[in-house]
Design brief:
Blueprint (H helix, E strand, L loop, with lengths): L12 H4 L2 H13 L4 E6 L6 E6 L3 E6 L3 E11 L2 E10 L8 H9 L18 H6 L2
Antiparallel strand pairs: 1-2, 2-3, 3-4, 4-5
Helix pairs in contact: 2-3
Length: 131
C-alpha cells in the first residue's frame, strides 16, 4: 500500500514520469521535519503535482515554473490546485529535492520566475527519469 503522503501512480505515463521526482521531494520535506498530509499528480499541459502540508499550506510544482507555496484553497487529483498568496520558491524548474526542502523550511522565495514551455524539448523528461 502506498503512503498517502507520496503521490499514487497516475494512469497517464507522461504525467507519471514526474512521480519519482515528487516522491523524492516529499521524502526530503519529511526529512527536513515538515509534516506532509497528502500529495498527488495533476493534469498535464503543463504537468503538475501538489503536496499538501500538515498546516494550511500546499506546494505546487509544474513543469513550466517549478515550485510555489501558498495557502491551500482547493484541489484534488485531476483538478488544478488553487493556492492563496502563492510565492515561487526558486531554484529553477527542477531543483534538487533537498534544496526544495531547505527553501520551504527556511521560508526562502524567489524574486524572479524561471520559465519554460511544457512543449520544450530541453531534456526535462530525461532529468525526471533520472529520479
Amino acid at each position: 500500500m502506498t503512503d498517502r503522503r507520496e503521490p499514487p501512480q497516475h494512469p497517464v505515463s507522461r504525467v507519471n514520469t514526474t512521480r519519482n521526482y515528487v516522491i523524492k521531494s516529499v521524502q526530503a520535506l519529511i526529512q527536513q521535519g515538515l509534516v506532509i498530509d497528502r500529495s498527488w499528480l495533476d493534469p498535464s499541459d503543463p504537468r503538475d503535482a501538489t503536496v499538501v502540508l500538515g498546516d494550511t499550506r500546499a506546494l505546487v510544482w509544474d513543469e513550466v515554473t517549478g515550485w510555489r507555496i501558498g495557502v491551500f484553497r482547493s484541489g484534488r487529483q485531476g483538478v488544478r490546485t488553487a493556492l492563496g498568496g502563492a510565492a515561487q520558491l526558486g531554484g529553477g524548474v527542477l531543483p534538487a529535492p533537498a534544496e526544495l526542502a531547505r527553501r520551504v523550511a527556511y521560508g526562502a522565495t524567489a524574486s524572479r520566475r524561471d520559465h519554460r514551455s511544457y512543449a520544450d524539448a530541453d531534456g526535462l523528461d530525461e532529468a525526471l527519469q533520472a529520479f
